[in-house]
Amino acid sequence: MKKIFVAFFAMCLMFPSFVSATESPLELPPEPFYLPVLMYHQISENPKRLCEYVISPEAFESDLKLLKELGYQPITTAELLKYAENKYQNVPEKAIMLTFDDGYLSDYVYAFPLLEKYEMKAVFAIVGAFADIYSVENADKNIRYAHTSWAEMAEMNESEFVEFVSHTNDMHNLKKRRGALRKKSESIESYKKALECDIAALNEKFEEHFGETPTALACPFGNFNQELQQALKESGFTVILTSEQKNNILTGKEDELLDINRIVRNHGMDLKKLLDKLESQQTKK
Ligand SMILES: [Zn+2]
User: Fold this and answer.
1) pTM here?
2) Ligand 1 mean position, distance from CA 172 (Å)
3) Chain segment 46-75, per-residue pLDDT in tens
4) How many CB atoms lie under 10 A from the CB of residue 85?
5) Residue 95 C-alpha to ligand 1 middle, in angstroms?
6) What is the pLDDT of residue 21?
7) Where does 31-284 sit in CATH, by number?
8) What's residue 27's pLDDT?
9) For a surface tag, which of 1, 102, 152, 238 has the fewest beta carbons within 10 Å of its beta carbon?
10) 222 CA → ligand 1 middle, Å
11) What is the arithmetic mean of pLDDT over 257-281?
């Protein structure tokens, strides 16, 4: 044993590179990038409407205050992509993503001013067909169910605290298919064609109103499978937001941004408790 040690020591003296070669397996793997993503839908002042998908303006404001106090930095999907491209070097110490699905008018009325007030970013996943309905003259602007118009969204898009992503052009329904998934009776070819048509239609609207096309998509109703993931990847999407209720532990694995979990922020949720739980899971790993 002693002889082996002496021989090893002699090798190290003769060939310093031998030392670094033996050191490398001891290097620690890079730290994962933890990214909790919260999913909001609508905001309402009517206490009777508060539920899994509707929270009060006060609750949203308290979320922003809490995140600020705790030092969380909300990021966009474009920032997430940049961090991934940079192998998660120089990422915020506490990153989070706030997302709003469906493009409700209440998000423009309540969430947008609060994001500006607290200087915090959010990602809005919008449905082209809904925006079209509420962009016509004399559109019904009932805050209970109305969606944001293209003009209102163009105004939001001027803000550095807003990012718009796709929630499909017209696949946010369960009548034709289950969200953006293939119908059982449909061939793969005609499904791909339908998906491509939908993507092209929304791209055109994004180009017209925002001057760019979306590179991230939130799956309608959280309906997601490998077939959809692959088709979206082929169409150039770089981030896909899904709805599995858990944290994201990102390490740079291929395609990991094409399935980003999101946790529903429902009425009555204790956000502090959730964040504490997620943080304690991180430190255990
Ligand atoms: Zn939706």
Assistant:
1) 0.89
2) 6
3) 999 999 999 999 999 999 999 999 999 999
4) 10
5) 24
6) 45
7) 3.20.20.370
8) 60
9) 1
10) 8
11) 96
| Ligand 1 centroid from CA 243, angstroms | 10
Domain ranges of the chain: 31-284
Return the higher-pLDDT residue of 24 and 257: 257
pLDDT attached to residue 1: 47
pLDDT in tens, 93-130: 999 999 999 999 999 999 999 999 999 999 999 999 99
Q: Quick one: pLDDT at residue 13?
A: 45
Cα(1) to centroid(ligand 1), Å: 66
Q: How far is the CA of 110 from the centre of ligand 1 (A)?
A: 18
Neighbours of ion ligand 1 (CB under 5 A): 101-102
